[in-house]
Design goal:
The chain has 81 residues and is mainly alpha-helical. It has a domain of 41 residues. The chain is built from four helices and no strands. The relative contact order is 0.05. The model has no long low-confidence stretch (mean pLDDT 90).
Length: 81
Amino acid sequence: MSVVEEIFLEVSPLKSLDKLQLVEKILTSLNPIDKKIEAIWADEVEARLDTYDKGLLSTVSLKDVFAKYRECNLNCVNLGK
Protein backbone atom coordinates (compact mmCIF):
# COMPACT_ATOMS: atom_id res chain seq x y z
CA MET A 1 0.00 0.00 0.00
CA SER A 2 1.36 3.43 -0.92
CA VAL A 3 1.91 6.22 1.59
CA VAL A 4 -0.89 8.19 -0.03
CA GLU A 5 -3.31 5.29 0.36
CA GLU A 6 -2.30 4.85 4.00
CA ILE A 7 -2.86 8.53 4.72
CA PHE A 8 -6.20 8.44 2.91
CA LEU A 9 -7.37 5.51 5.02
CA GLU A 10 -6.30 7.37 8.14
CA VAL A 11 -8.14 10.60 7.28
CA SER A 12 -11.25 9.00 5.76
CA PRO A 13 -13.11 8.75 9.08
CA LEU A 14 -12.55 12.43 9.88
CA LYS A 15 -15.46 14.86 9.93
CA SER A 16 -15.98 16.91 6.76
CA LEU A 17 -14.74 20.12 8.35
CA ASP A 18 -11.53 18.44 9.48
CA LYS A 19 -11.00 17.06 5.97
CA LEU A 20 -11.53 20.52 4.48
CA GLN A 21 -9.01 22.03 6.87
CA LEU A 22 -6.51 19.34 5.93
CA VAL A 23 -7.06 19.98 2.22
CA GLU A 24 -6.56 23.70 2.80
CA LYS A 25 -3.25 23.03 4.54
CA ILE A 26 -2.10 20.74 1.71
CA LEU A 27 -3.08 23.28 -0.95
CA THR A 28 -1.37 26.09 0.96
CA SER A 29 1.79 24.00 1.17
CA LEU A 30 1.71 23.65 -2.63
CA ASN A 31 0.97 27.32 -3.24
CA PRO A 32 2.05 29.39 -0.23
CA ILE A 33 0.15 32.58 0.54
CA ASP A 34 1.92 35.72 -0.64
CA LYS A 35 1.48 38.23 2.17
CA LYS A 36 1.97 41.18 -0.21
CA ILE A 37 -0.88 39.97 -2.43
CA GLU A 38 -3.07 39.29 0.61
CA ALA A 39 -2.44 42.87 1.81
CA ILE A 40 -3.32 44.28 -1.62
CA TRP A 41 -6.59 42.29 -1.63
CA ALA A 42 -7.39 43.39 1.93
CA ASP A 43 -6.98 47.03 0.84
CA GLU A 44 -9.18 46.38 -2.20
CA VAL A 45 -11.90 44.81 -0.06
CA GLU A 46 -11.84 47.78 2.32
CA ALA A 47 -12.06 50.23 -0.61
CA ARG A 48 -14.99 48.37 -2.15
CA LEU A 49 -16.79 48.15 1.18
CA ASP A 50 -16.25 51.88 1.76
CA THR A 51 -17.63 52.63 -1.72
CA TYR A 52 -20.66 50.43 -1.00
CA ASP A 53 -21.24 52.05 2.41
CA LYS A 54 -21.20 55.50 0.78
CA GLY A 55 -23.86 54.38 -1.71
CA LEU A 56 -21.53 54.82 -4.69
CA LEU A 57 -21.65 51.21 -5.79
CA SER A 58 -24.56 49.77 -7.71
CA THR A 59 -25.66 46.32 -6.63
CA VAL A 60 -27.59 43.46 -8.16
CA SER A 61 -29.77 41.07 -6.19
CA LEU A 62 -28.68 37.46 -5.94
CA LYS A 63 -31.99 36.47 -7.51
CA ASP A 64 -31.18 38.59 -10.59
CA VAL A 65 -27.67 37.15 -10.83
CA PHE A 66 -28.99 33.60 -10.74
CA ALA A 67 -31.67 34.44 -13.29
CA LYS A 68 -29.10 35.95 -15.67
CA TYR A 69 -26.78 32.97 -15.53
CA ARG A 70 -29.58 30.44 -15.60
CA GLU A 71 -30.80 32.13 -18.80
CA CYS A 72 -27.26 32.21 -20.20
CA ASN A 73 -26.75 28.59 -19.32
CA LEU A 74 -29.76 27.75 -21.44
CA ASN A 75 -29.36 30.27 -24.26
CA CYS A 76 -25.90 31.81 -24.41
CA VAL A 77 -22.76 30.53 -25.98
CA ASN A 78 -20.76 33.38 -24.42
CA LEU A 79 -21.45 34.56 -20.86
CA GLY A 80 -20.48 38.06 -22.01
CA LYS A 81 -23.85 38.20 -23.79
